[in-house]
Specification:
The structure is a single chain. With 488 residues, the protein is of the alpha/beta class. Residues 425-436 and 480-488 have low confidence and may be disordered. It contains 18 helices and 15 strands. It has a seven-stranded mixed β-sheet, sandwiched between helices. A six-stranded parallel β-sheet has the order 8-11-12-13-14-15. It has helices spanning 18-29, 44-54, 67-80, 92-96, 98-102, 116-127, 170-175, 204-207, 217-231, 247-257, 272-280, 295-300, 307-319, 337-353, 373-380, 409-427, 437-449, 456-474, and strands spanning 2-7, 34-39, 59-62, 87-90, 109-111, 138-142, 145-148, 186-189, 192-194, 212-214, 235-238, 261-264, 283-291, 324-330, 362-365. The radius of gyration is 23 Å and the shape is globular.
Length: 488
């Protein structure tokens, strides 16, 4: 038996662990029994007990950089405290930081890059007690020395990747779908891998080597129609890094599945004729990585977009009544305080353009992700990377819990939290919400006057929200939908 695990946060637990299902399928075809766990921190004892009692060939864990890194480290330590089953780390973080990951005494092996074929070869080698030096794309320890083997080429034919749906309870992922998509039975699906663009803040140029690889259209349509028929899903969330690279293919898929859908799209893909097609094929909502309201920053990060193009796409969506959310980041390397304020003012401008937009812009702080070009710039500017794998768990784009030397961290934290407080009460037009316009006025005044000293209104507002939430629960009343109560 092989145990595959993805530790997650409350929000992440709603998303199908596709990496484990692709891998589980490959391992089962190779003759292995597979058990998948997708758990919160509260499930660590359960997994540890299972591993101790069943003595699997190895435990494979998948993680990216952020809170799950810490959770995965905690799980690994727990397992190592009761048995000596090999712990194999895979996913984006250990692929980019294999040396640091292997330096931990709770990690035995790392898989670098896509781990479908890597882990099958690895499983065979462990089972037959062979030397790991011949297994491409893995790192391991031998006589106290860390060894990283040559990488394996990316699989060009994604049609070879099957999904072992039976390894998880799909109903739990469907029923728990986030209400922000206006659907009760919407399910996440991944129709491609990677992205051809080379944004300086993104992991893709290193992890996917700057490539975009689609799953066969027939396979995507077949999977979704199966889910529609057998699980009665009423919508799809396309969780690709860039679903619309091949715009014709995307339309073909959307036409065939005949379901409401949500997906990420670049602003330069949106024009009036294409927007009309998206509406025709039941577009539920779009998300655009706008990143910044400063053209200087957009050029610095190699986004390949201008603020003019961002405004144009927003106007097209308004014209066609498409709900669209723009995602912004503040605190990029070399970004000035004025650049950050310009981004917030740009958001004000967008909201004035499309005031009836039912979804609001998102804003978080820049995180120096390992493997990106801007990570190296960040280090040169004084960013000190965590020296231990588990310490990467402090990365949170909605709170400045780590030091960015080129910004005033306290002011940046107030900017982010103030924006979160304002958007939770004033921007999103959900089915039931608090219109605390006074919060909007306070936040605008702070931005326009660059004053973020003693932001007491943030804590007052959050206290009021939490009190109201507890009161409704105590009275046995159902919480209203909407961002105010943290449900979107």
């Amino acid at each position: 038996m092989i145990v595959l695990v993805k530790m997650d946060t409350d929000k992440g637990l709603m998303d199908i662990p596709y990496a484990l299902l692709f891998l589980g399928s490959a391992l089962e075809k190779a003759g292995y029994d597979v058990k998948v766990f997708h758990q919160l921190s509260s499930g660590i004892d359960k997994i540890t007990k299972f591993v101790k009692n069943n003595n699997p060939l190895f435990v494979g864990v998948s993680t990216c950089t952020g809170p799950t890194t810490k959770l995965t480290a905690d799980l690994s330590k727990s397992i190592k405290s009761v048995c000596d089953v090999p712990i194999v780390w895979g996913g984006v973080h250990p692929s980019i930081f294999p040396w640091q990951t292997l330096a931990e005494n709770y990690v035995d092996i790392v898989v670098v890059g896509e781990d479908k074929n890597n882990k099958v070869d690895l499983a065979n080698a462990i089972k037959k007690k062979k030397d790991l030096s011949k297994v491409k794309g893995v790192g391991y320890k031998k006589n106290g020395k860390i060894i990283i083997n040559p990488s394996r080429p990316l699989e060009s034919d994604l049609g070879k990747f099957d999904i072992a749906w039976h390894l998880v309870n799909l109903e739990s992922y469907i029923k728990n779908r986030d209400i922000r998509y206006n659907s009760e039975k919407m399910l996440i699906y991944i129709a491609s891998r990677g992205c051809p663009y080379r944004c300086g803040f993104c992991y893709n140029p290193m992890f996917n080597r700057g490539t975009w690889r689609p799953f066969p259209t027939k396979k995507v349509v077949s999977d979704i129609l199966m889910l529609k028929q057998e699980y009665d899903i009423d919508g799809v969330v396309f969780w690709d890094d860039n679903f619309f690279v091949d715009k014709r293919r995307s339309l073909d898929i959307l036409k065939e599945i005949d379901l409401p859908w949500y997906g990420d799209i670049r602003a330069n893909y949106i024009d009036d004729s294409y927007a009309k097609k998206l509406v025709q094929y039941k577009c539920n909502r779009l998300l655009v990585g706008a990143e910044s309201g400063s053209d200087r920053i957009l050029k610095l990060i190699r986004k390949g977009l201008t603020t003019k193009e961002l405004i144009s796409a927003y106007k097209v969506c308004k014209k066609n009544k498409i709900p669209i959310s723009y995602s912004f980041v503040v605190g990029f390397p070399t970004e000035t305080w004025q650049d950050s304020l310009d981004t917030v003012k740009f958001i004000f401008k967008l909201i004035d353009i499309y005031p009836d937009n039912p979804v609001g812009p998102i804003m978080g702080v820049y995180m120096p992700y390992p493997g990106s070009d801007l990570y190296d710039v960040s280090v040169k500017l004084g960013f000190k990377p965590p020296s231990r794998t588990e310490d990467w768990g402090v990365f949170n784009r909605y709170a400045v819990d780590f030091d960015l030397p080129w910004v005033d961290n306290k002011k940046m934290d107030a900017l982010i939290k103030g924006y979160d407080t304002w958007t939770s009460s004033c921007i999103t037009k959900t089915s039931w919400r608090y219109d605390l316009m006074v919060m909007k006025k306070i936040y605008e005044a702070r931005v326009n006057n660059s004053c973020f000293f003693a932001p007491h209104e943030i804590y007052l507002h959050r206290g009021l929200r939490d009190y109201t939430k507890k009161l409704l629960v105590s009275l046995g009343l159902k919480l209203p939908s909407g961002q105010y109560f943290g449900s979107s």
